[in-house]
Known about the structure:
Radius of gyration: 21 Å
Number of strands: 2
Strand content: under 5%
Order of helices and strands: HHHHHHHHHHHHHHHHEEH
Strand order of the largest sheet: 1-2
Largest sheet: 2 strands, antiparallel
Distance between the termini: 24 Å
Structural class: mainly alpha
Amino acid sequence: MTRRERLVLVASTVGFSMVLLDTTVVNVALGAIARDLHAGPTTLEWVANAYTLVFAGLLLSTGLAADRVGPRRVFLIGLATFAGGSFLAGAAPTATALVAAQAVLGVGAALVLPTSLSLLSQVFADPAARTRAVGVWAAGSAAAFAAGPVVGGLLIEQAGWRAIFVLNLPLALLAGGLAVTQLPRQADVTRAAGAPGSLGAQVVAVAMLVALTFGLVESGGRGWGSPAVVVALAAAIVLATALGLRERTSASPLVPRQLVTDRRFIASTAGGALLNFAFYGELFFLSLFLQQERGLDALQTGLAFLPQPLLFMAVSPLAGRLVAARGARAPLAAGAVLAAAAALVLLAVDTDSPYGVLVAGLALNGLGGGLAIPAVTAGVMGAAPPSLAGIASAALNAGRQVGGVLGVAVLGGLATAGGHVDPAGLHQALVVAGLGLAGAGALALTLPSPRPAAVLQPA
Length: 459
């Protein structure tokens, strides 16, 4: 790996990690925000959800933008937007202003995430080296996910909740500085002006994802029978149907047919959605369980979860090398099986079970995720030539984001009763999570036979 490749990998990983850090760190701060800004429960939901809603809704459009005008330019715009949103959030005088700032952060995140992966396709010409880089990139995301609750708890205790947003500013500056100095401007010309995907299709896709995300997010507080939830989900179904019909007949589909007819792309994208369904759902209801039933505070809960992301970080680079040598099928299948086994182990967790039971389950989850996540990423990027890397990455991450929202809504709904974790519901949620992970393992078996010499060779 050359010096330039290493520095671009650092820029990409820092940008992606910053986005993921914000998805977890805000949840730790909600109590302090409520006290300081006098925010009620509904407003606090929007403080957390405005980011997710805008983030998920814009991913496909920003992926297309990256392919059209170049990942370097979109990455830098995204970092600047994220830094601006962070400044606004840190200075927000009211809860409403904080919600608006979180929406701006969601725009920045949607610009940064797909381009952070596209940059690797631009710089790492060798397929095996690119796969190893993806493993490091995934390990960085796990580090950010792990650091969120712990760093957030420490910052809130020492400097107040506004400090969690100030933290983003030096990270954005570091990633932006490396991108400006290490990426040539000609890397911004990646796709012809007549690129696939019309503006109308992008608008419909954004509206569909926003409606779906809104319905899933609000179902937890309003209930599945709420008129707002029913209308949002019905609108998502109608828009998805219209988009599907349009994509089948259009000469310029939103997701190019070169991708949607490649089984690596379909199986990997669906597998990524199922993995996030289980992992995000488990994180949500196990966090509630540890705080409500075991009496841990936010910082203690973050520390309790550390075995999972630490093992994820340790395994991801190794998984990248394994995928480069053997293909994505075996690591994805093995990772999904290990994570499904973790759900079975976690069935033994209750209000007085030893911490070792939780550690065993979380450790298996970390091993499974560390194998599977780089595999699904490599599978998707292996199906895409560099000119379509942005939309391929965006489609993968849009699917994963929606899978995560669905996991929180469905598994959280199963696990909780009256706002508290119910032991019987906890077990039901773990069974459903295990079934989702088994589904990801089954999808892995549909991947093509390994091609060690060209694992990430553009299709």
